[in-house]
Every structure is written in structure tokens, then in C-alpha cells.
Design brief:
binds zinc ion; 53% helix; alpha/beta; five-stranded parallel β-sheet; 17 helices; Rossmann fold; 378 residues
């Protein structure tokens, strides 16, 4: 990964390049910001630059032995720590190395992914992921070994907020007495959950959401989308390239999602409880990932319909059939119910995520909508 391959974030790139060329890279950096803003790709670009054998190269040369090993994520001085679960049937404490194969695969496919994608890759649904204490012992051991290439060592810690207390305290000790020529890059979605003492040991760089133009440009170049499609998807991705990629994955599901949304709203409005029961049964047969995607999709349409009422087309993104539906439906989503309806979608998504019985969750969800749609139209 080179800086040129990281989408947007030009200010941060310039800042990091300056640190590299002035040889003032701090021993611990904290990259924070929303998922999908490019923290992990940026960390990989920085690591590759530091491990490049060309001295103080602000862009990895791409051809030296260091760069070749970094490209395969197999550089002996590039270490990764990330949250895991205990693999079934394995004795002892789990560590990142137990899942390093899956981690490398995912990163090599694309470093733009989020926590749920990582869960799917570890083939788990609903277990708490964590960085365990054993990991911090291993960090210490790895850093005690001399750099194999005589240069920098880089330790990328993804989601340090998932460290348990013992792991976090041990990491703090390491950060307090950092080994020479070692750079820690902590990548956090929720830096407020980190120990203040860890925060104070790091130099924090906040990643803003990506601009729509940057997302659209990347979608056109990397995913061969037309200019119009790329712009439309960028518009609904809320500054996250991960969300943009999810939109692409929805692809063929979109029409089913739209139809399910329309039925749901019509049946809720006409208080057709028996039909809503059937609706919930039908969706319960979809599988959890698809159900969650539907609920995310529906939540977006709720917000879009609310915005529709303000007659500001530049703030609205709706496809043709969605927009036609909104001409009559939008008025049912208004300031009296938009927040509660949106929360109801999010709660159902979270319940499904936590393995609750989908049939019950979805029927219950539909019943709540009857009340909320009515509330908005009294
Ligand atoms: Zn190189």
C-alpha cells in the first residue's frame, strides 16, 4: 500500500510525509475517525514507507526487498494486533496470530473494511471480539527481538478499544518505555473508550469523513462504475468508502429491499396485522446478513423520505422507483415520528445482530411501526 493508493485525506498524507522526511515520526500514533475514512490503508502506507529500504522515502519505492515483503504483508518487522475470539477447541488464550491468515487475506483483498466484515471473515456471528492480555505479552516479545532488517519496526494495533484492562495496562507500560525505532499505529473507531493514559502517550490524527468527490472518483477508477452511478453511491455513503462498497454489494438485493419496504409501510399504515405477520415470516427466511442489510436500507429510506418533505432535491438521493414512491409516502415521515422510526430500525438491526429470534424481532418491529406511522399522522 502506498500513500497514492489511499483515497483522499490529502492533508493527513502531507502531514505524514513531512514527519517521515524530517525523521520525526512519533513512536506512537493514534488514527481515529469514522470507519471507512481510510485509517487502516493510511497506516499500511506509513508502515510501507518506514520499512522501505530507500532512506526517508515519502512514498514506498515499491521495488526494494522491504517493499516487496510489505506488499505481501509478510515483512518480519511489520506486526499486527487486532481483536479476535477464542477459536473452538483451542486451549489457552487467543492471540491475533491465530487468525493472521484470515487477516492477511482480508487486507490483501481491500484494506477498506469494518468490524462486521472482520467478524464475517472469522466466521462468527455474535461473540464479543477482544484483544486479550496474552497479546500484550506477545507484543513485548516481538519487540524485544532485534529488527531483522536493521530498520524500523511497526506495530499496527487495530481497534485498541477492544483491549481488556490487563492488555491495555501492559500496552501502556510498553508505550511508556518505547523500544528504539519502533512505531506504534493505533487505529480506533472509538478513541473515547481508550485509557486516558494511553491517549496521552500517542499523537492523535483525526480522520474526517471522505468527500463525496473522492469516493466517487475511487468508485469510478477501482470499481468501473459509470460517472453517474459512482456519484449516486458516493452521495449515500456518508463519507465512508466501506459503506460505498456495501452499497455495491447490495446490488441485486436493492429491488427486493425496496419492495419489502413498500409492503411494510403500506401494511403498517392500513394496520393489517395478519399480513404483517406473514411479512415478518417471509423476511425471517432471508438469513441474518440480508435482514440486517434490509434494515439498514430501510433506515436510509426513512431519512430520505423525511428530507423529501423539505423539497431540496440536492439533499436527496432516491432512485427512480424510490422517488416515485416518496411522492405519496414522504408525508407520513415527519418531525413527530422520524426519530422513533429510525431508532426502531436500528434496534431491530441490533437485535438481529445479537442473534435474537428473527421472526419475533421482525413482527415486533412491524407492530411498533403501526403505532409510529399513526403517531406521525394525527
Ligand atoms: Zn522500497
Amino acid at each position: 500500500m502506498s500513500f497514492n493508493e489511499v483515497i483522499g485525506q490529502e492533508n493527513i498524507k502531507a502531514n505524514l510525509r513531512r514527519l517521515i522526511s524530517s525523521q520525526h515520526v512519533p513512536h506512537a500514533l493514534l488514527f481515529s475517525g469514522t470507519p471507512g475514512s481510510g485509517k487502516l490503508p493510511m497506516a499500511l502506507a506509513l508502515a510501507s514507507s518506514l520499512l522501505c529500504k530507500e532512506e526517508n522515502h515519502t512514498e514506498p519505492c515499491g521495488i526494494c526487498s522491504g517493499c516487496r515483503m510489505s506488499q505481501k504483508l509478510a515483512h518480519p518487522d511489520l506486526h499486527f494486533v487486532f481483536p479476535v475470539i477464542k477459536p473452538e477447541g483451542k486451549a489457552g488464550k487467543p492471540v491475533s496470530d491465530d487468525y493472521i491468515r484470515q487477516w492477511r487475506e482480508l487486507l490483501l483483498e481491500s484494506p477498506y473494511f469494518d468490524r462486521s466484515e472482520w467478524l464475517r471473515r472469522m466466521k462468527i456471528n455474535n461473540q464479543q471480539i477482544m484483544i486479550y492480555e496474552a497479546e500484550s505479552d506477545l507484543i513485548q516479545q516481538k519487540l524485544n527481538i532485534m529488527s531483522s532488517q536493521g530498520g524500523y519496526k511497526v506495530m499496527i494495533i487495530w481497534l485498541p478499544e477492544t483491549m481488556n484492562m490487563a492488555a491495555a495496562n501492559k500496552l501502556l507500560k510498553i508505550l511508556e518505555e518505547p523500544p528504539q525505532k519502533t512505531v506504534f499505529i493505533l487505529i480506533s473507531d472509538e478513541p473515547d473508550k481508550l485509557l486516558p493514559t494511553i491517549l496521552s502517550r500517542t499523537q492523535r490524527i483525526d480522520f474526517p469523513p471522505l468527500s463525496e468527490a473522492d469516493i466517487a472518483e475511487a468508485l469510478e477508477a477501482r470499481n468501473a462504475l459509470s460517472h453517474e452511478d459512482a456519484r449516486d453511491i458516493a452521495h449515500i455513503s456518508e463519507g465512508s468508502y466501506v459503506k460505498a462498497l456495501q452499497q455495491l454489494q447490495w446490488g441485486d438485493d436493492r429491488e427486493d429491499f425496496f419492495n419489502a419496504f413498500v409492503s411494510l409501510m403500506r401494511l403498517s399504515y392500513s394496520r393489517a396485522v395478519r399480513d404483517l405477520h406473514n411479512w415478518a415470516d417471509e423476511l425471517a427466511s432471508w438469513g441474518r446478513e440480508r435482514q440486517k442489510n434490509f434494515l439498514r436500507y430501510g433506515n436510509r429510506l426513512v431519512r430520505e423520505n423525511f428530507i423529501y418533505n423539505f423539497h431540496s432535491p440536492h439533499m436527496n438521493f432516491l432512485s427512480g422507483s424510490e422517488a416515485t414512491f416518496s411522492t405519496r409516502f414522504a408525508r407520513f415521515i415527519n418531525e413527530k415520528n422520524v426519530i422513533s422510526i429510525s431508532q426502531t430500525f436500528s434496534e431491530a438491526e441490533s437485535d438481529i445482530e445479537h442473534n435474537a429470534n428473527a421472526r419475533i424481532v421482525l413482527f415486533d418491529f412491524a407492530l411498533k411501526l403501526i403505532v409510529l406511522i399513526k403517531q406521525g399522522n394525527q
